[in-house]
Write a structure and sequence with these properties.
Bound molecules: 6-phosphogluconic acid
Number of domains: 1
Shape: globular
Strand order of the largest sheet: 1-9-8-5-2-3
Largest sheet: 6 strands, parallel
Low-confidence stretches: none
CATH architecture: 3-Layer(aba) Sandwich
Length: about 250
């Protein structure tokens, strides 16, 4: 089951729906457990969603002091680097909303090499979710994007981390980028209560058709492997990215 797919005429209507879902899922989690754990996606697509959440339209719809932010993946760059997913979220979401430091869990890419940074992140996750290295953390919500090559988080085609079944987070060498990335693994992604993909733009159309309608080949199209074991999967797609869907 590829989950539910909703197609929107443009990114504005897609973001409005996504922001409403974010608030709905968040308030439900806060109501049930007093806090809301969310893993943010990086790249460029979610930037406008983050600034919408921080806007007058949404900023008063949830108690931000009870929202705890993680990152589905991160580049091996300093947090102030223009390519940092943390920096993009800080500029568009954390700073405008004045989210307290203690509510933000970023990958320590400035202090540590990728391996210790991954271990440090695992410790943070196990501590926050009170798991003991046996079961996987269960995020209330994970936001994901999809690359034009069908990757998601930093789980790229034919990369090592695609087959990780034990670690909750790891580092991942990406040949095509000639770079190492940091990423949550599929067992962690698929243990989430809610996963929302945000996919927009003409350049994603071919990969989206393969992921949603093509043959199951997750080595080639890793986003196919996102299947929450016990959770909701929702694809929010704009008309351009959905152009080739049947
Ligand atoms: C990252 C992201 C990545 C992203 C896709 C889509 O670190 O780049 O987490 O998985 O979601 O690459 O990126 P765009 O939204 O920029 O197209």
């Amino acid at each position: 089951m590829a989950g539910e797919i909703k197609i929107f005429p443009d990114i504005e209507s897609l973001n409005n729906f996504a922001a409403e879902k974010f608030v709905e899922i968040g308030n439900e989690a806060i109501g049930l457990r007093g806090k809301f754990s969310v893993a943010l996606s990086g790249g460029s697509t979610p930037k406008s969603l983050y600034s919408l959440l921080a806007s007058d339209k949404f900023k008063d719809k949830i108690d931000w002091s009870k929202v705890f932010f993680f990152f589905g993946d991160e580049r091996d760059v300093d947090p102030g680097d223009e390519n940092s997913n943390f920096r993009m979220a800080r500029e568009n979401l954390f700073a405008p909303l004045q989210i307290p430091e203690e509510n933000i869990f970023r990958w320590q890419t400035d202090f540590l090499d990728v391996m210790p940074a991954a271990v440090d992140y695992i410790w943070n996750l196990e501590d926050f979710f009170e798991t003991d290295g046996i079961e996987f953390p269960r995020f209330d919500l994970i936001l994901l994007g999809m690359g034009a090559d069908g990757h998601t988080a930093s789980l790229f085609p034919f990369s090592e981390a695609l087959n990780e079944t034990e670690l909750i987070a790891t580092f991942n060498w990406v040949e095509r980028l000639n770079a190492t990335r940091l990423t949550l693994t599929f067992p962690t992604l698929n243990n989430a209560a809610n996963i929302i993909f945000l996919v927009a733009g003409e350049e994603k159309a071919a990969a989206l058709r393969e992921v949603l309608e093509g043959e199951y080949d997750p080595e080639k199209f890793p986003a196919q492997k996102v299947k929450p074991v016990n959770g909701n999967l929702l694809w929010l797609v704009d008309a351009e990215a959905a152009r080739l869907l049947q």
